[in-house]
Specification:
5 helices; 2 domains; signal; alpha+beta; about 140 residues
């Protein structure tokens, strides 16, 4: 690469960082938009799911495994630090509702056989200490 083009790339990088540093929300929106275009509309969990349990964090992982016995494809929906009162005595019902909403919103959900909803509660004093409940559903049930 020529020194001039390296300087040009460096200049553009610095200029873009300086112009975007005062608007981190627009950077985040742009990143989410790009991710959804690449993975499929509705890949990021909706605010409706967040509100069901007042979850502080949400994460999605997609897994597709193929071997001699066939294939398995799973959506992992990880919901972190929800309100214990909203999780209630029947977290399995809340997990089912979260799975239903995610399957409804994610345009590529037909490509997956299973959805696993994980509720994770961490100890604010010791993040290494956590509790997890996990519920798995067939996507065709939604």
């Amino acid at each position: 690469m020529k020194p001039i083009s390296r300087l040009g790339i460096l200049f553009l990088l610095i200029a873009s960082l300086n112009s975007c540093s005062c608007e981190p929300e627009s950077i985040a929106k742009g990143a989410i938009w790009g991710l959804e275009k690449m993975m499929g509309e509705g890949f990021m969990p909706s605010d409706e799911i967040r509100a069901l349990g007042n979850f502080q964090g949400m994460n999605v992982n997609l897994s597709q495994k193929k071997d001699q016995n066939g294939s398995e494809s799973t959506i992992f929906l990880k919901l972190e630090n929800g309100d214990p009162l909203l999780l209630g005595d029947q977290p399995d019902l809340l997990a089912r509702k979260c799975a239903e909403l995610y399957i409804r919103d994610f345009e590529n959900s037909d490509d997956y056989e299973l959805i696993t909803v994980q509720f994770i509660q961490t100890d604010p004093m010791n993040p290494d200490n956590f509790a997890m409940k996990e519920y798995t559903f067939n996507t065709v049930d939604f």
